[in-house]
């Protein structure tokens, strides 16, 4: 079980469903915001033109509501932060003021 905190507002508990070293990981949300529970988050790695590419997916949403839209936007920001951390050594993790 893994726990992720986003300020004091959100705590998500994820269960690892599947993990293939250097290839992929699949999580299922077992506790957190109601809209997240039961959703699955996956990261798949592959090679693309001599670089590692990360394919991300967050599936199983019951509704495409405002919370879904906000999470979709935030995932994009976090993936860009991860890229910057890997390529430039500095990311932009979550801060409560965002």
What is the CATH topology descriptor of one domain?
Alpha-D-Glucose-1,6-Bisphosphate, Chain A, domain 4
Mean pLDDT: 91
So what's the CATH class of one domain? Alpha Beta
Spatial shape: globular
Please give the share of residues in helix. 10-25%
Taking the alpha carbons of the first and last residues, their distance comes to: 27 Å
Spans of at least 5 consecutive residues whose pLDDT stays below 50 are none
Give helix and strand order, one letter per element, not per position.
EEEEEH
Strand content: 35-45%
Enumerate the strands of the largest sheet in spatial order, edge to edge or round the barrel.
1-2-3-4-5
- Assembly state of the chains shown: single chain
Q: Calculate Rg over CA atoms.
A: 14 Å
The SS-based structural class is alpha+beta
CATH architecture term of one domain: 2-Layer Sandwich
What is the CATH H-level superfamily of one domain? START domain
Q: Give the biggest beta sheet.
A: 5 strands, antiparallel
**What is the number of E strands?**
5
Can you count the helices? 1
Task: List strands and helices in order, with pairings.
Layout (H helix, E strand, L loop, with lengths): L1 E5 L3 E11 L3 E8 L8 E9 L2 E9 L6 H23 L10
Antiparallel strand pairs: 1-2, 2-3, 3-4, 4-5
Describe the structure.
- The chain is α+β, with helices and mostly antiparallel strands and 98 residues long.
- It has a domain at 2-64: Alpha-D-Glucose-1,6-Bisphosphate, Chain A, domain 4.
- The chain contains one helix and five strands; from the N terminus they run βββββα.
- The protein has one helix at 66-88, and strands at 2-6, 10-20, 24-31, 40-48, 51-59.
- It is globular.
- The model has no long low-confidence stretch (mean pLDDT 91).
